[in-house]
Amino acid sequence: MLVFVIVLFVGGYLISLRIHPLRKCPVCKMTGRHFGSMYKGSFRRCRKCEGSGRLDRWGTQVFFGGTKNTGIYPKK
User: Fold this and answer.
1) In this structure, is residue 49 part of a structural domain?
2) What is d(CA 7, CA 28) in angstroms, rounded to the nearest whole number?
3) pLDDT band, very low/low/confident/very high, at 62 (cuts 50, 70, 90)
4) CB atoms < 10 A from the CB of 42, how many?
5) pTM given for the model
6) Is residue 72 part of a domain?
7) Cα–Cα distance between 10 and 1 in angstroms, integer?
8) Would you say 43 and 33 are in contact if contact means Cβ atoms under 8 Å apart?
9) Within a domain: residue 18?
10) What is the pLDDT of residues 19-40, one digit of tens each?
């Protein structure tokens, strides 16, 4: 029974990765902008997500090779 639950959990996680491969950028919180500390109105593109506000989930990178933060899997 425990093996069935583990297989079900892993299968559900892999399906979730294929459907939703991206997560919020923890630095800019999906705004794509990084605000300055001195001048609060100034901003630049977030360096971590390159301004998109999205990053690949950990499992997307490990199991499927990542999408380069686009959400589109490359053709194999």
Assistant:
1) yes
2) 35
3) very high
4) 11
5) 0.77
6) no
7) 15
8) yes
9) yes
10) 999 999 999 989 999 888 888 8
Q: Do residues 66 and 23 make contact, with C-beta atoms less than 8 angstroms apart?
A: no
User: What's the rounded Cα separation, in Å, for the pair 61 and 14?
Assistant: 12
Which amino acid would we find at residue 39?
Answer: Y
Instruction: For residue 73, tell me if it sits in a domain.
Output: no
User: Which two three-digit tokens encode residue 15?
Assistant: 């399906």
How many angstroms from the chain centroid is the CA of residue 15? 15
Report DSSP letters for 3-50, one per residue.
Answer: HHHHHHHHHHHHHHHHH--EEE-TTTTTS-EEE-SSSTT-EEE-TTTT
Boundaries of domain holding 44: 2-64
Number of domains comprising the chain: 1
